[in-house]
């Protein structure tokens, strides 16, 4: 810094003052004043105060150019510092749109401003990439969480379901083991019952054969009764015809009696006309008349008896027809029974065969159930091991879920 107030300069100035005029002396004082102001402003700027300026410049020449150059330098420096600070502060806060204004910038200030703007663009690009990477990382974390939690949930649910299923299987196998034991006893009892049924079917078959023999005998008797009823029906039909003939003869006798009665009446009338000569004839005619009347009464009685006999015969014919029809129905029923008994005999034979087969199958079933019982015992032991494995899977699923949550928390915190 130029010092104008040194003893030597002051001494020289004093000596010079003796030889300069008043105008020159005033100009010299003016220079000393602005040089001091220049020094103060430059010192203030060197200490970081870029707002100090040299104001009210009243000199010209090189000193004026120096003063204005210093003011311009301070303006450029202050503008550059303010713009750089604003741009860098915004960039530090993630706001990369704030640029250093290049308008009015020159030389190194403009180059430095362009470098800062370019650095801001690069920082924005890097920040965008970091942000996108963070977004992708979070998306990957979300997807990983979703996938792993889904798998963990499925595994946990599967383990829970497996545990429940194994527990149910354990209970089922235990029940199956008990039930197979009961089944063996039941099958043994069934086997005994089947043997009893087999013996019963043999006895039943013998009984049915005996019944069939009896039914055949009754069928023969019924057939004989049918034949006898047909003979009785034919006999009654002949009796009806005979009584019909007797009735006709009785009617003829009645007609003759009526005619005789009329002749006796006429003879009596003629004897009365003959007087004493016809008295004997009148007695005969009177006897004939009495005889004709008795004959008419007898024929009426015979006719009544014939009608009564015909009624009885008709009832007998009707009853015989009914009996004959009933016997035929009995014969048909006997045939049906005989047919049914034959069929039942075949069915019983089939049942007997099936019962024998059932006895064999029952024995096989007993063996199979005993094998099932042994298998159920083995399954029960296996389900215990599987139950332990299901518990281990459930614990591992919980551990996996906890580790994934810690991993995701670490990723998201960064």
TrEMBL record:
One of its GO terms (molecular function) is transmembrane signaling receptor activity. It comes from the Bacteria. Residues 151-380 form the Methyl-accepting transducer domain. Residues 310-372 form the T-SNARE coiled-coil homology domain. Keywords: Cell inner membrane, Cell membrane, Membrane, Transducer. Signal peptide: none annotated. One of its GO terms (biological process) is signal transduction. It holds the Pfam family MCPsignal. One of its GO terms (cellular component) is plasma membrane. SMART domains: MA. It is a multi-pass membrane protein. Its main location: membrane. The keyword Cell membrane applies. It is found in: Cell inner membrane. InterPro entries: Chemotax_Me-accpt_rcpt, MCPsignal_dom, T_SNARE_dom. Belongs to the methyl-accepting chemotaxis (MCP) protein family. This is Methyl-accepting chemotaxis protein 3. It comes from Gimesia aquarii.
């Amino acid at each position: 810094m130029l010092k104008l107030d040194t003893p030597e300069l002051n001494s020289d100035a004093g000596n010079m003052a003796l030889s300069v005029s008043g105008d020159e002396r005033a100009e010299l004082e003016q220079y000393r004043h602005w040089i001091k102001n220049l020094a103060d402003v430059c010192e203030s700027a060197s200490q970081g105060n870029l707002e100090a300026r040299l104001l009210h410049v009243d000199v010209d020449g090189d000193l004026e150019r120096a003063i204005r150059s210093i003011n311009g330098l301070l303006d450029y420096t202050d503008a550059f510092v303010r713009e750089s600070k604003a741009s860098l502060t915004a960039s530090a806060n993630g706001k990369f749109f704030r640029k250093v204004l290049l308008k009015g910038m020159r030389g190194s200030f403009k180059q430095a401003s362009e470098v800062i703007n370019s650095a801001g663009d690069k920082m924005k690009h890097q920040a965008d990439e970091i942000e996108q990477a963070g977004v992708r990382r979070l998306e990957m974390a979300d997807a990983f969480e979703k996938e792993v939690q889904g798998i963990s949930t499925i595994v946990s649910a599967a383990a829970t379901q497996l545990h429940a299923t194994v527990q149910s299987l354990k209970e089922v196998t235990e029940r199956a083991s008990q039930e197979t034991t009961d089944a063996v006893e039941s099958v043994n009892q069934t086997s005994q019952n089947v043997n009893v049924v087999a013996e019963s079917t043999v006895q039943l078959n013998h009984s049915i054969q005996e019944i069939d023999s009896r039914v055949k005998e009754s069928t023969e008797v019924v057939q004989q009764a049918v034949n006898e009823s047909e003979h009785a029906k034919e006999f009654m039909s002949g009796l009806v015809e005979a009584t019909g003939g007797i009735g006709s003869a009785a009617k003829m006798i009645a007609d003759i009696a009526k005619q005789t009665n009329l002749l006796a009446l006429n003879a009596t009338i003629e004897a009365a006309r003959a007087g004493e000569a016809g008295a004997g004839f009148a007695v005969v005619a009177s006897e004939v008349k009495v005889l004709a009347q008795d004959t008419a009464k007898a024929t009426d009685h015979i006719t009544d008896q014939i009608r009564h006999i015909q009624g009885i015969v008709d009832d007998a014919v009707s009853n015989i027809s009914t009996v004959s029809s009933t016997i035929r129905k009995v014969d048909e029923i006997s045939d049906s029974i005989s047919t049914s008994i034959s069929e039942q005999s075949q069915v019983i034979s089939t049942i007997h065969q099936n019962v024998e087969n059932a006895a064999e199958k029952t024995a096989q079933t007993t063996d199979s159930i005993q094998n099932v019982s042994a298998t159920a015992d083995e399954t029960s032991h296996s389900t215990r091991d599987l139950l332990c494995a299901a518990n281990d899977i459930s614990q591992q699923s919980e551990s996996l879920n906890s580790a994934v949550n810690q991993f995701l928390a670490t990723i998201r915190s960064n």
